[in-house]
Amino acid sequence: MRRRSRSCVFPIPGVAAKLFKPIADANIVVDMIIQTSSIEKGCADVAFTVPKSDFNKTLQIIKETIKELGGKKSNPMKILQKVSIVGVGMRSHSSVATQMFSALAKEGINIQMISTSEIKISCIIDSKYTELAVRALHDAFELDKPKIAEEK
After folding, report:
1. pLDDT computed for residue 89 by the predictor
2. Residue 150: beta bridge partners?
3. Reading across the β-sheet that carries 120-126, which strands appear in turn?
4. In the prediction, which pLDDT does 106 show?
5. How far apart are the C-alpha atoms of 107 and 32, rounded to whole Å?
């Protein structure tokens, strides 16, 4: 399980390094990091996940760091879970992300965060939907059907 924290800090070079250094120094592994900047709010909104077991320690570090940086707030979030789909076919199939998002939406599962790479799409969701999400993705990608060997 993952816990997500959101922080609003000044959007200037070096702030992300200053924000995450004390977390790294505490040997806490940060998984997904998403940052957006808002000119209207005058801050960068940084959201990230850490293991549930490190959440309280991370929260204390973040509160201290944000205060030192002159940031505005830190909003700890509820317990979340990461579900992912993985495969090299994602590089050449444009509909994979849509298929994943649609399968989760069909079950009423809200996506809190999305992270992608060339071979993986991960979504952070409310942990109470973990089993439902896995089943929905299993069905959407027809993982219960045997694969037919490609002809040479």
Report:
1. 75
2. none
3. 33-38, 43-51, 2-9, 73-86, 120-126, 111-116
4. 98
5. 24
In whole angstroms, what is the distance from residue 149 CA to residue 133 CA? 28
Instruction: Give the dihedral of Cα atoms 18, 111, 125, 54; nearest 10 deg.
Output: 0
Amino acid sitting at position 26: A
Q: Which two tokens stand for residue 94?
A: 């444009």
**For 10-149, where are the E strands, in sequence order?**
33-38, 43-51, 73-86, 111-116, 120-126
Q: Is 39 helix (H, G, I), strand (E, B) or coil?
A: coil
Copy the structure tokens of residue 32: 């997904």
CA-based nearest residue to 104, from 145, 144, 80, 135 = 135
Alpha helices in 28-117 (DSSP H): 55-69, 96-106
pLDDT averages per 10-residue partition of the chain, 152 residues: 56 84 97 78 79 91 86 72 88 87 97 91 94 96 77 48
DSSP assignment of 92-116 equals: T-TTHHHHHHHHHHHTTPPEEEEEE
The residue type at 44: A
Q: pTM of the predicted model, to two decimals?
A: 0.76
The identity of residue 80, as a single letter, is L
Tokens of 149: 């060997």
